[in-house]
Structures are given as structure tokens and as C-alpha cells.
Automatic annotation (TrEMBL):
Belongs to the ligand-gated ion channel (TC 1.A.9) family. Keywords: Cell membrane, Chloride, Chloride channel, Disulfide bond, Glycoprotein, Ion channel, Ion transport, Membrane, Postsynaptic cell membrane, Receptor, Signal, Synapse, Transmembrane, Transmembrane helix, Transport. It is found in: Postsynaptic cell membrane. One of its GO terms (cellular component) is postsynaptic membrane. This is GABA(C) receptor. The keyword Ion transport applies. GO terms for molecular function: chloride channel activity; extracellular ligand-gated monoatomic ion channel activity; transmembrane signaling receptor activity.
Length: 470
């Protein structure tokens, strides 16, 4: 009892200064109570958070996933089944859109969903309900995946809005689905020999970069059904066919590689070029024929028609060439444009010939008119006879007069009589030179012939052209 009494006295002695301070400073006592309340509150809250943490399985999910998939226990820098047979990797593609096709750069841009299927037993995990687990790009960086790339690609990127468009799905038995959304710009070797009536065959090629056929075997997951497309509409092309194929590619230093092809055939719409190229060209050629119906003496009118059509055709040819690649062979549109340009140019040359022949004939008539002013007696020779080089044909006297003329009598006596053939009439064929001289002396007939020849020749050219290229 004495010891208990002494202990109580000591406790009171210790608490007495604190009581005096609380009584003298009441704010201190209030702050102390607040501090003790906050401490109790935080302690209680910590107990609640601990209980919620035990019930919520998403807390530190990444750590649980890595432990479940045993990522830290394996070296994922090596492919599955290293040292054994080649690992099969199935490919499945869904084409979302063909964004652009460039004839100048000879390439195309495509957006697609690229899916890979393979099995990695290192990622197998126990599961009671046999459900798969889906992850995003954060886990993809820690495991092995096929290094598929696009052959002949110029640019490509993975969409990353709002996050990287990457999906990883792991099944309990180790089967893996890896999907990624990609936009790629790839080379397409186009043949423009039939442009714009052409059909282009382009392909997107997939291949493993590091693993040859001894380590990795690429194949289409579902055969021809592995390539699916959405509704695709292009401005200048019509997609005739989409089909997958496969093959092998040989590199002399690394060996054979499996290669997959996404082939699609594009047929160009002709209506745009009919409106922009062919119809204007036809109109310019027809317009050049109008000059054939204009009088050949109207020089300003016919020259204006010729120069206008020639310059317009030059503008059309320049515009088409600027929108096309500089290839070393002749295109179908070049044949049509330059042939049409030739028709327009020949119409200008035709008028130049008509004007030249007309001027020459008029000068000849003017010269003959001057000669007719001289006295006919001055053109007589010493024998008293007129010569063909000195007088016109219209001045010859009738045949009865020629027979009585002594000059003609002497000429006729020098020629022996030829036997006459009854019932026949001899007609001398006109030589080429005489035909040319006849046309030159009648230059107005050139326009008459051109009105028929030019349209018939151009229609015949169009018939041959569209029969070959359409």
C-alpha cells in the first residue's frame, strides 16, 4: 500500500504542471484535442484504405500481371522455341482505307489493321475460367513479338491518338493476338503506256526483318479470308480485286525469307479525262476545220483560226505532261494529243499552201495580162509563124484555118500518116506533174478536198485509237 501511494503522488506531481498550463492557456488545450482527433482520423482512414486495397484487384495490376505471366523469369529477347523448328506466325489484315494514289511519285498510302497470331508457352498462365487477358502497348515492350516490316515502304507510322493503337491479348494456353493500326506509304511500280485507259496492279509486301524461314514462318491465318476490306471509294480509280498471296524472297547474305503480298487491282475512271483532255482536244481539231469554209483571200480570219487552235493544243499538252511522271516511253494520251496536234498543224499548213498557190496563179495571170498588151506582130518569128511560147492557147485559129495555113501544112507534111483504129478513142493519162500543176492552177480545190479528207482521216484515227486502248 505504501508503494502504491508513493506512485500516485509521483503521477500527480508530474501532471500538475501540465494542468496549470492548460488552465492558464486554454488555446493550447484546444489545439491538443484537435491534434488527437486528426491523429485518430488518419489512423481510421488508413484502416479503410487497407480494406479497400484488399478487395480491389486492380491495385498494382502491372506487378500482378508480370508475376502471373512470369515475365521476369524468361529472356524475351529470344524467340519462342529457340533452337527448334521455325515458329509459325499467322497474319490477318483488315484494310480500312486507301488514302491516296500518286502517279507522280508512283506510290500509294494505305491505313490497315495488322494482326499477328503466334504461341509463346512462356506466357501461359493458370486460369479457372479459361478467359484471355487484354493489355495495351505498355506490356508489349516487355515480351517477344514478330519483327514484321513493309517491303518497299517509304513512310509508315503507328497511330497514337489518344494512345498508341496497340492491342495485346494473351490466352491461358500461351496463344497470343497482337494487333496494331498502321498507315503506310509504299512504292507501286506503275505502267503508264495505256494511260489514262490503264489498269494498275499494286501490292503491299510483309516480311520478317531478322528471322529467315528457319526461325519464323509467316502465313495467312485464314487463307484468302485473311484479307478483309471496308467500303473503299476512290476519286480516280475503281478497285476491281483484293487478294492475298505468298512467296519467298532471297537475300544473298542472309538467306530465304517468307513474304506475304496484299495485291489489289485498280482501274482508272476515264470520264474525268474525257472532260478534261479528250473532249477539248476534239473541239480544237474540229475548230481548225472551220477555216476550210472561209474564203482563201480572208487571210486574217484563217490565220487567227490556225494560231488559236495551235496555241490551245500546246496548252493542253503542257497541262497533261505537268501532272504525269517523266517516263521514257510514250503514253496513250500522248499519242492522241500529238496526233490531234498534227491535224491542227496540217490545217495551218494547208492554208499556207492554198495562199501560196493562189498568189502564184494571180502573178502568172498578171504577167500574161502585161504580155497581151504588146502587138501580136511583134511576137512573129522570121518564118512568119506564131509560136506556142509567145501566144495564149485561146488565140489559136480554128482547125480549118490551120489546115490552110502554109506553116501548118509544112509541119503536117513532115509527120507520116498514122493508121486509124475504128471504134477506139485514145486518151492520154495525166502525169503527176501535170496533176500538181492542175491543182496549183486551181488552188480553191484544195479547200474542197480538205473538207472531206481531214474529217474522214480524224474519224478513222479515233476508230483505231479507241479500238486498241479501250
Amino acid at each position: 500500500k505504501l508503494v502504491l501511494l508513493v506512485f500516485r503522488v509521483l503521477c500527480l506531481a508530474c501532471l500538475w504542471p501540465v494542468t496549470l498550463l492548460d488552465n492558464r492557456y486554454p488555446d493550447r488545450k484546444k489545439n491538443k484535442d484537435v491534434y488527437l482527433g486528426e491523429h485518430a482520423k488518419h489512423k481510421f482512414k488508413g484502416r479503410i484504405d487497407y480494406k479497400l486495397k484488399r478487395k480491389d484487384s486492380t491495385k498494382s495490376l502491372l506487378i500482378k500481371t508480370e508475376q502471373l505471366l512470369r515475365i521476369e523469369d524468361h529472356d524475351f529477347a529470344m524467340r519462342p522455341g529457340f533452337g527448334g523448328s521455325a515458329i509459325p506466325v499467322g497474319i490477318d489484315v483488315q484494310v480500312e482505307s486507301i488514302d491516296s494514289i500518286s502517279e507522280v511519285d508512283m506510290d500509294f498510302t494505305m491505313t490497315l489493321y495488322l494482326r499477328h497470331y503466334w504461341k509463346d508457352e512462356r506466357l501461359a498462365f493458370p486460369s479457372t475460367n479459361n478467359l484471355s487477358r487484354t493489355f495495351d502497348g505498355r506490356l508489349v515492350k516487355k515480351i517477344w513479338k514478330p519483327d514484321v516490316f513493309f517491303v518497299h515502304s517509304k513512310r509508315s507510322f503507328i497511330h497514337d491518338t489518344t494512345m498508341e493503337n496497340i492491342m495485346l491479348r494473351v490466352y491461358p494456353d500461351g496463344n497470343i493476338l497482337y494487333s496494331v493500326r498502321i498507315t503506310v506509304t509504299s512504292l507501286c511500280s506503275m505502267d503508264f503506256s495505256r494511260f489514262p485507259l490503264d489498269t494498275q496492279n499494286c501490292s503491299l509486301e510483309l516480311e520478317s526483318y531478322a528471322y529467315n524461314e528457319n526461325d519464323l514462318m509467316l502465313y495467312w491465318k485464314n487463307g484468302n479470308d485473311s484479307l478483309r476490306t471496308d467500303e473503299i471509294a476512290l476519286s480516280q480509280f475503281f478497285i476491281e480485286e483484293f487478294h492475298p498471296s505468298h512467296g519467298l524472297a532471297l537475300y544473298s547474305s542472309t538467306g530465304w525469307y517468307n513474304r506475304l503480298y496484299i495485291n489489289f487491282i485498280l482501274r482508272r475512271h476515264i470520264f474525268f479525262f474525257m472532260l478534261q483532255t479528250y473532249f477539248p482536244t476534239m473541239l480544237m481539231v474540229v475548230l481548225s476545220w472551220v477555216s476550210f469554209w472561209i474564203d482563201r483571200r480572208a487571210v486574217p480570219a484563217r490565220v487567227s483560226f490556225g494560231i488559236t487552235t495551235v496555241l490551245t493544243m500546246s496548252t493542253i499538252i503542257t497541262g497533261v505532261s505537268a501532272s504525269m511522271p517523266q517516263v521514257s516511253y510514250v503514253k496513250a494520251v500522248d499519242i492522241y494529243l500529238w496526233t490531234s496536234f498534227l491535224f491542227v498543224f496540217l490545217s495551218v499548213i494547208e492554208y499556207a499552201a492554198v495562199n501560196y498557190f493562189t498568189t502564184k496563179v494571180e502573178m502568172k495571170k498578171l504577167k500574161q495580162l502585161k504580155l497581151s498588151e504588146f502587138d501580136a506582130s511583134q511576137a512573129m518569128a522570121f518564118d512568119g509563124c506564131f509560136h506556142d511560147t509567145d501566144i495564149e492557147l485561146s488565140t489559136f485559129p480554128p482547125m480549118s484555118y490551120l489546115n490552110s495555113d502554109p506553116c501548118m501544112t509544112s509541119l503536117n507534111s513532115a509527120v507520116p500518116d498514122l493508121p486509124r483504129i475504128m471504134g477506139t478513142r485514145l486518151r492520154r493519162r495525166r502525169s503527176i506533174r501535170q496533176s500538181v500543176n492542175h491543182i496549183m492552177s486551181n488552188s480553191y480545190k484544195i479547200d474542197s478536198y480538205s473538207r472531206i479528207f481531214f474529217p474522214v482521216a480524224y474519224i478513222f484515227f479515233n476508230f483505231i485509237y479507241w479500238s486498241i486502248y479501250s
